[in-house]
Amino acid sequence: MASENTRPDLPPLKDLTIDNITENVHSINSRCEDARLKFLLETLVTHLHDFARETRLSVKEWETAIEFLVQVGKISSDVRHEFILLSDILGLSLLVDSIDHPKPPNSTEGTVLGPFHTLEAHDLASGDQISHDPDGEPLFVLCSIKDTQSRAISDVSVDVWETDSKGFYDVQYAERSGPDGRAVLKSNQDGIFYFKAIVPVPYPIPNDGPVGKLLGRLKRHPYRPSHMHFMFKKPGYDRLITALYLRGDPYENSDAVFGVKESLITTLGLVSDVKGLAEEYGLSPQTKLLKHDFVLITDQESDSLREDNAWKEARRREGLTVRDGLLVRKD
């Protein structure tokens, strides 16, 4: 009896050449029963092989790339996701998020998650202090959450995180005793949440590892502009990962991870700019103020828009169709 790997219906892998290796790989992978996985692997192999042929990739360059990925894996940990960092600096993270979480014009755009989100954040109440850095400039954050029909959304889980005044996240300190500069809050019945933080500062992404060395070879700086991260989750709504960036930051137009979008750039004001705000929340009138209105879309809105975009791509490319909202090869 023939073994699984020597069945007669499998293609013979002999006399492989530069010209026929790709079709042979496709052929031997063709029995995959998962249509989406089959399509992904076929497309990946096609692009990888075309890249090698187009660039006349050398064995030395291939070995260097493999070793680079090995080093990316070695330096990665639960609190340092170097592969996410690599995806970020190549622009892939933003691209994938934009494809998988499309947004209509009247909603808040998404951006990169970044490598420093954790699940360690404490649940805090609106009005609490999320950062305890004594050197940070005080900031009051006051935000609303609505749907695309301008209706307030209550009970949204709001995950926020930022660096300290020196540009480091809590997880970058070996001696840390717990989370700081991060929290999970809930929006109230009016869709409002608010908290005390510090004014964000620009900072370099970790550049002591393989990704940082790659940036050096590319003559690119490792800096991100001043920003604060937000993640919104509620059943029935499309998860939103986004950030707000401070206008006028020196790295506003050259973010190392391509996360800045014009709609996400904000200008800080003062608490005194809003009548009665200082008295209502017990704040110094000179405290910096970050005020923003977020707009979430429903799962149904997201699914519909994602499928519409998938069909547009299928119609553009011959031989593709859409199944369960995902591109696959036609049977």
Task: Reconstruct the topology from this structure.
Elements: H1 21-29, H2 35-55, H3 59-75, H4 82-89, H5 92-100, E1 138-146, E2 157-161, E3 182-186, E4 192-198, E5 203-204, H6 210-217, E6 223-224, E7 227-233, E8 240-246, E9 265-266, E10 269-270, H7 277-281, E11 288-295, H8 299-316, E12 320-323, E13 326-329
Parallel strand pairs: 1-11, 8-9
Antiparallel strand pairs: 1-4, 2-3, 2-7, 5-6, 7-8, 10-11, 12-13
Helix pairs in contact: 1-2
Structural class of the secondary structure composition? Answer: alpha+beta
Report the CATH C-level class of the largest domain: Mainly Beta
Annotated CATH homologous superfamily of the largest domain: Aromatic compound dioxygenase
User: In CATH terms, what is the fold-level topology of the largest domain?
Assistant: Protocatechuate 3,4-Dioxygenase, subunit A
> Over all CA atoms, what is the radius of gyration?
24 Å
Helix run count: 8
Helix-residue proportion: 25-40%
CATH architecture label name of the largest domain: Sandwich
The count of domains is 2
Keywords: Dioxygenase, Iron, Metal-binding, Oxidoreductase
Family: Belongs to the intradiol ring-cleavage dioxygenase family.
Pfam families: Dioxygenase_C, Dioxygenase_N
Cofactor: Fe(3+)
Structure description:
- The protein is α+β, with helices and mostly antiparallel strands and 331 residues long.
- It folds into 2 domains: 90 residues, no CATH class; 213 residues, Sandwich (Protocatechuate 3,4-Dioxygenase, subunit A).
- 29% of the residues lie in helices and 19% in strands.
- The protein contains 8 helices and 13 strands.
- A 5-stranded mixed β-sheet has the order 3-2-7-8-9, with no helix packed on it. A 4-stranded mixed β-sheet has the order 4-1-11-10, with no helix packed on it. A two-stranded antiparallel sheet has the order 5-6.
- A hairpin with a 2-residue loop joins β12 and β13.
- α1 runs antiparallel to α2.
- The longest helix has 21 residues.
- This is Intradiol ring-cleavage dioxygenases domain-containing protein.
- Belongs to the intradiol ring-cleavage dioxygenase family.
- Keywords: Dioxygenase, Iron, Metal-binding, Oxidoreductase.
- Its cofactor is Fe(3+).
